[in-house]
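Whiteboard transcription, Tuesday session. T.W. wrote the structure tokens on the left side:
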């Protein structure tokens, strides 16, 4: 969770019953507070807040959530340039790295891929040919950094191996804009290095602070129902 949202959640925790009973659907009151800030839970989910004993706390919590909602409304949305869909977050490179890490599964290749190689490939579902530098080649998966599409049609100033069509299995990076999701959550996100600034979707497999690993990547993101 970003610093601002952590601060907001901590204010809510001070007013919650603190029983960590799980009746709201979350293991701890601080988890419940974070869900309230994200708009994924309601004060009605806590049975203790509906009692006379916590009436004053419930009133103050409601007021705080209204204030948080007003602030949230002033924050700019994250919108994909190509499709105009709204995303939950922007995924940026890890510190001192040039691009988000992508995990690829090549469908077919005659080349032996090794760490340090530059590959040319097209992600399944994307019309743009990519070039990437291989960070790790383990069995059928390649972890890469994108180095750009600018040489995709003309002559290049470096050697590369052509691996053809690849399935993008996952992304790794840090949340630079938007909210930090929970593990297991399906999110919409824009990889900062994406040349089309298209909204992707996937499932959060790992979250350590603002560092995420997102898998089950899908470029076919549907517009929300009206």
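and on the right, the sequence the group agreed on:
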């Amino acid at each position: 969770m970003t610093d601002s949202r952590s601060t907001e959640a901590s204010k809510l925790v001070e007013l919650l019953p603190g029983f960590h009973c799980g009746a709201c659907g979350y293991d701890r009151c601080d988890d419940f507070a974070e869900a309230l800030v994200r708009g994924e839970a309601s004060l009605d989910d806590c049975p203790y807040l509906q009692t006379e004993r916590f009436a004053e706390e419930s009133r103050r919590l409601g007021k705080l959530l209204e204030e948080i909602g007003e602030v949230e409304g002033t924050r700019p949305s994250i919108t994909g340039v190509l499709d105009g869909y709204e995303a939950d977050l922007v995924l940026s490179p890890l510190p001192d790295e040039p691009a988000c890490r992508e995990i690829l599964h090549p469908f077919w290749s005659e080349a032996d891929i090794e760490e340090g190689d530059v590959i040319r490939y097209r992600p399944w579902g994307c019309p743009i040919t990519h070039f990437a530098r291989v960070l790790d080649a383990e069995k059928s998966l390649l972890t890469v950094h994108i180095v750009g599409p600018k040489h995709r049609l003309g002559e290049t100033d470096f050697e590369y191996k052509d691996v053809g069509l690849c399935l993008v299995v996952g992304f790794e990076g840090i949340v630079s804009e938007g909210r930090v999701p929970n593990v297991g959550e399906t999110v919409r996100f824009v990889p900062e290095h994406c040349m089309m600034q298209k909204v992707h979707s996937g499932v959060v497999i790992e979250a350590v602070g603002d560092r995420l690993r997102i898998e089950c990547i899908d470029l076919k993101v549907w517009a929300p129902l009206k």
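Someone added at the bottom: The first helix runs from residue 3 to 13.
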